[in-house]
Amino acid sequence: MEEKIKEIEQKSIKEISEAKNVKELNDLRVKYLGKKGELTTILRGMGELSPEERPQIGSLVNVVKANLENIIQENEAKYQEEELNRKLKEETIDITLPSTKIKRGSKHPVNRVIEEIEDLFISMGYDVEVGPELETDEFCFERLNLPKGHPARDMQDSFYITNEYLLRTQTSSVQARTMLANEEKTPIRMICAGKTYRREDDATHSHQFGQVEGLVIDKKENNVSLADLKGTLEIFVRKLIGENLDLRFRPSYFPFTEPSYEVDVTCFKCGGKGCPLCKQTGWIEILGAGIVHPNVLEMNGYNPDEFGGFAFGTGLDRLAMFRYGITDMRYLYTNDVRFLKQFDRKD
User: Fold this and answer.
1) Residue 85 sits in the same domain as residue 118
2) In terms of domains, do 261 and 125 share one?
3) First to last CA, the chain
4) Residue finishing a domain among 59, 89, 119
5) Cross-strand bridge partners of residue 194
6) pLDDT tier at 205 (50, 70, 90 boundaries)?
7) Same structural domain for residues 232 and 322?
8) 40-64, pLDDT tens digit by residue?
9) Nearest CA to 62 among 54, 74, 50, 72?
10) Which of 24, 123, 129, 252 has its CA 20 to 30 Å from the CA of residue 188?
11) What CA–CA distances, in Å, run from 36 to 11, 25, 33, 42, 162?
């Protein structure tokens, strides 16, 4: 048995010395030292030996195994070093060569406007709320004082998925959800910016567009009034479009506010003198606003005798167009890199 072990040792050392790479060394490790290797087979057959021979043979096999493992590891280290040196030589980077120019991305103009609006209103104590884009008829219309059959629904050509579900036509649905979720009926100051959908498509309209809604509700004893709305909107518009703009409120109609107003700003291009952009009027319509309708308060859990407030909403895409001088809303959604890459230098 000892002669056989010596023979295996000499044979394995010879084969290890002739191995040319790490893979061949691993194959030899399995051949001699693995679970089914030649030395392991000898250990499993020790039951056939006499009690006196077993310790001697077992000790000899362990010595040979340790010796072979050391030789294999030494050769592995040598081949690994050789492979590393070869890669360093072949894959050397010439740092004097011109680098590959990396294309620089930029934020989408609408995302820039959203971030700026959110930063502004957070600084004024508002919360940023979100809501589902696939909305129910209840939250998109009914809880905003637009029951089924209401004529104002005809103004919004909607994408209905079922009789009950549709792609939201306005972010105002988030106002209703925020009021209902506020179980303590504490004051609310919130904005919501996000995508909305209507069947429209021309230079100033798109079937998908962005809106931002604002809502303030407080106890009537705190006198949240039209003056507060006007002051808030002045800060908002001057921050987003220009510092020297004036606001003009025109009476209008929205089902969810009463009284309701269309809000115009002095034309940022001509300064109110009149130009083709403002159609020689000196004013540009920018948003809708008003005092929250008592029906909306009541339907969403607030007592209109105790609470009041204001709401406003405007299009994110139009703000981006005004801010960056974009003439066609469709440019915002065509994914034309030539158009979009301009905005890494705008601010």
Assistant:
1) no
2) yes
3) 85
4) 89
5) 211
6) low
7) yes
8) 777 766 667 677 777 777 777 778 7
9) 54
10) 252
11) 17, 16, 8, 10, 67
With 0-12 CB in 10 A as exposed, 13-18 as middle and 19+ as buried, what is 36? exposed
Query: Is there a contact between 265 and 291 (Cβ–Cβ < 8 Å)?
Result: no
Q: CA–CA separation, 279 vs 205, rounded Å?
A: 18
| 140 and 75 in a common domain | no
Question: What is the model's pLDDT at position 28?
Answer: 81
Identify whether residues 59 and 162 lie together within a single domain. Answer: no
- Whole-number Å distance between alpha carbons of 288 and 264: 9
| Residue 290 belongs to domain with CATH number | 3.30.930.10
Tokens of 299: 């339907």
> Last residue of some domain: 89, 120, 146?
89
Amino acid at 43: L
Asked if 277 and 267 touch (Cβ cutoff 8 Å), the reply is yes
The predicted-structure confidence for 116-171, as pLDDT tens digits, reads as follows: 999 999 999 999 999 999 999 999 999 999 888 777 677 677 888 998 999 998 99
Rounded distance, CA 144 to CA 153, Å? Answer: 11
Which tokens in the block code for residue 246? 């004036």
Coil/strand/helix, residue 291? strand
Distance of CA 287 to the CA centre of its chain: 27
Q: Report CA Rg, the chain.
A: 38
Q: Are residues 116 and 240 in the same domain?
A: yes
Report the domain count for the chain.
Answer: 2
Domain span at residue 309?
Answer: 109-344
Q: At what angle do helices 53-90 and 2-18 cross, to 10 degrees?
A: 0
- Helices marked H in 124-168 — which ranges? 137-140
DSSP state of 115: H
**Does one domain contain both 114 and 225?**
yes
Residue carrying structure tokens 């919130």: 190
